[in-house]
Amino acid sequence: MIDTLVRLYLYRTARTAPGPRQSAAGLSFPPSKDGGGAREEASMRVRRPQLADNVIYRGRDGLQAPRAAIVTATADSLDVRGVEAGEVPALTSPAHVHLHVLTPSPAGFFVEFDVPPGQGPGQWHHPSR
């Protein structure tokens, strides 16, 4: 399963095409055929989040340890009917995501909603290559 996820991640990142585009949140993403993209921020390259991306999440509370996480909703994939029904929280920007965060505890995972990008506490980022 890990091999499949790695191949999917590499496939998606290889298809990213250059060219500027401004998101509603003021973030700059270049366009690509599959809706993904990238932006430059200092020396760090950040891709636009996509459904099922493997990312790193740093906890908001407690140890704030980095954890593996899977993107379960993006601005492009979130079902508006679920938001309107109150079943799932809305996203406040195209860069925010909902995550299933993996943990070595017996529970195995926990859920985080409307998580912003970045490397600080309570934020997600793509793994460095």
Structure characterization notes:
The chain is α+β, with helices and mostly antiparallel strands and 129 residues long. The protein has one domain (2-125). Helix content is 14%, strand content 29%. It is built from 2 helices and 7 strands. The protein has helices at 2-14, 80-84, and strands at 38-41, 44-47, 54-58, 66-73, 97-102, 109-115, 123-125. The longest helix has 13 residues, at 2-14. The radius of gyration is 15 Å and the shape is globular. The model is unreliable at 11-28 and 32-44 (pLDDT under 50).
Brief synopsis:
Helices cover 14% and strands 29% of the residues. With 129 residues, it is of the alpha+beta class.
Question: Topology of this protein?
Answer:
Layout: H1 2-14, E1 38-41, E2 44-47, E3 54-58, E4 66-73, H2 80-84, E5 97-102, E6 109-115, E7 123-125
Antiparallel strand pairs: 1-2, 3-4, 3-7, 4-5, 5-6
Instruction: Give the count of structural domains.
Output: 1
Query: What share of residues is helical?
Result: 10-25%
What class, by secondary structure content? alpha+beta
Low-confidence stretches: 11-28, 32-44
Strand-residue fraction?
25-35%
List keywords for this structure.
129 residues, alpha+beta, 5-stranded antiparallel sheet, two-stranded antiparallel ribbon, 2 helices, 7 strands, 29% strand, globular
